[in-house]
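Sequence only, no structure available. Ideas?
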Amino acid sequence: MVTQPQIAHLASRALIEVSGEDWRSFLQGLITQDVDTLSPGQARFGALLNPQGRLLFDLFVIGREDGAWLDVEKAHRDALVMRLTMYRLRAKVRIAPDETKVFAAFGADPGQGWAPDPRLPALGWRAYGDFAPNADEAAYDAHRLALGVPGPADWGVEQTYPIEANFDLLNGIDFKKGCFVGQETTSRMKRRGQVKNRMLPLAFDGQPPAPGAELLNGERRAGEVLSGQGGRAMALVRLDRLEGALTAEGRSATAEVPAWLPTSS
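Reply:
I predicted one. Tokens follow.
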């Protein structure tokens, strides 16, 4: 039996067009991902950080013949356009919203016109244009959460370091590309060789606790519950407090560490 791909319109995502003579050098000096070697049709995952190294905006950069698309959270698109415009100075770059729709496919290969998700092969593919959806965004989010991959609802704005949100494990940071905003802090955290906190999924009986609920190991604070649905949630967890009984809001929680996520680094 041939499995059909699940295709979802990601209404929470939107595009920014970046073009012009200097588009590559402009983005190269700002975001965590390398764009100098980006090919048309290729997608890469990255972020724009603040100067202190905390996450401002997650993004996918998609190569085009005459520039790139930035696939970003729709609610923050205008703020990102303003931030990029502030950085533009004299660079010959055009920065503008683009109303092309964002789609994700998972479960089976959707065929031509789709770019593999650069974070994790099991996540599926992304595409831009007009497609016939047969799944909703909630189904895609459940698929992502089942794989233990956090999303924008988990890191907020200027609250989280990208390594805590696993960007280094999900191909979201190129440590060899040269300078980017927030690089000093990000590189220092990587060089230390020990990451104390990471986002990972938790399983609960029933619905997950409210975002912000304290995760406890006995009486010791072990982390904080972030977003969730259907008995699972993401949490920012202290890796040295994974062993033992975990609870949140008085209910038992089970940490489910994905195979791709080491509990020490």
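The radius of gyration is 19 Å.
Hope that gets you unstuck.
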